[in-house]
DNA sequence: AATGCACCCAACCGCGCATCG
DNA sequence: CCGATGCGCGGTTGGGTGCAT
């Protein structure tokens, strides 16, 4: 038994919206609002459309202050950072970009950003010369498996400038981190490998150090956090050095610091990383701070 | 100029979740 | 508590368009 259809499929119009339909819908909502019931709305105004279709049309095109196309480099950075951190939660990503819709961002990611990012990633990995291992099937949500396409143009990403005063929007690393915390992230100075525990064994992390979170990150998060499409199977939890930018579903990654040293997620986890180099990278501290997220089942 | 191909994007589909009676 | 209903979301599709051959 399947779910009942939301409308009578035989009696609703599908396909592109006409200007007349747009005008009807916009005019009604402008003067009456949605009435809290999208399903009933098209009948009220005499549209042969599914309520869900009306809702989509309104949210993506007709409502005020919608922007289309022309994504700025800053928006690219935010989308990439968030996608790498929280995955394909387009509505959350869209909420941080005023005037953008989740559908628009999703399309933009699928058609352009993903390819650019993959191109960048491939170049970095091939220059490193490390043999890659095909990922197991069904491994994760981020990148397709299979033969690599021809390298697309590289994405030119600039670091997001740190701004301590920006609170309302999501355009700096501190606010990115705050959002990730809100989504269930935790930050810890403990190294789970040293403690002999897996991140899943840490139900409670120390209190969040807000001051530390407000420190600028090291370099461009995209450079630090390029998820690998054909590394080992997806680990359960992201563990990133120092930066504090973490995600529930960030997979194995390649981290490159300003000095050109690279660390692979599996190297970190397996303990084969050169901690001296890592400590130099992160500022000569005695211990490598780990950032762990546990908002992940 | 014609054809094929790749890309883009608006729209649809189905599922999970929240709410309500 | 439970089933019905509606909403919101992410994945996918298919038509339009531009470019390469």
Automatic annotation (TrEMBL):
Its main location: nucleus. Residues 118-158 are annotated as: Disordered. GO terms for molecular function: DNA binding. Residues 9-62, 63-113 form the Myb-like domain. Residues 9-62, 63-117 form the HTH myb-type domain. The keyword Metal-binding does not apply. Keywords: DNA-binding, Nucleus, Repeat, Transcription, Transcription regulation. It is found in: Nucleus. The keyword Transcription applies. GO terms for cellular component: nucleus. InterPro entries: Homeodomain-like_sf, Myb_dom, SANT/Myb. This is Transcription factor RAX1-like. It comes from Salvia divinorum (Maria pastora).
């Amino acid at each position: 038994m399947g779910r009942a259809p939301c409308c009578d499929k035989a009696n609703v119009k599908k396909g592109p919206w006409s200007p007349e339909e747009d005008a009807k819908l916009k005019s009604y909502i402008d003067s009456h609002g949605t009435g809290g019931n999208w399903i009933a709305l098209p009948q009220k105004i005499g549209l042969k459309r599914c309520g869900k279709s009306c809702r989509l049309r309104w949210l993506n095109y007709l409502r005020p202050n919608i922007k289309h196309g022309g994504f700025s480099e800053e928006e690219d950075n935010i989308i990439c950072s968030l996608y790498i951190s929280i995955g394909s939660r387009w509505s959350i990503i869209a909420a941080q970009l005023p005037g953008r819709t989740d559908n628009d961002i999703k399309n933009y990611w699928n058609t352009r950003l993903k390819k650019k990012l993959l191109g960048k990633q491939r170049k970095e990995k091939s220059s490193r010369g490390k043999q890659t291992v095909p990922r197991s099937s069904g491994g994760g949500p981020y990148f397709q498996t299979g033969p690599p396409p021809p390298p697309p143009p590289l994405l030119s990403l600039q670091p997001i400038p740190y701004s301590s005063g920006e609170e309302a929007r999501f355009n700096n690393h501190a606010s990115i981190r705050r959002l990730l915390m809100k989504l269930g992230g935790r930050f810890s100075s403990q190294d789970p490998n040293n403690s002999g525990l897996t991140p899943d064994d840490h139900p409670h992390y120390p209190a969040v150090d807000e001051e530390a979170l407000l420190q600028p990150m090291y370099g461009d998060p995209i450079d630090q956090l390029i998820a690998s499409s054909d590394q080992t199977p997806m680990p359960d939890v992201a563990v990133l050095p120092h930066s504090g930018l973490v995600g529930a579903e960030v997979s194995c990654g390649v981290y490159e610091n300003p000095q050109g040293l690279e660390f692979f997620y599996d190297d970190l986890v397996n303990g084969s990383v050169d901690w001296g180099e890592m400590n130099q990278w992160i500022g000569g501290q005695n211990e490598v701070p780990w950032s762990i997220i546990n908002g992940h089942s």
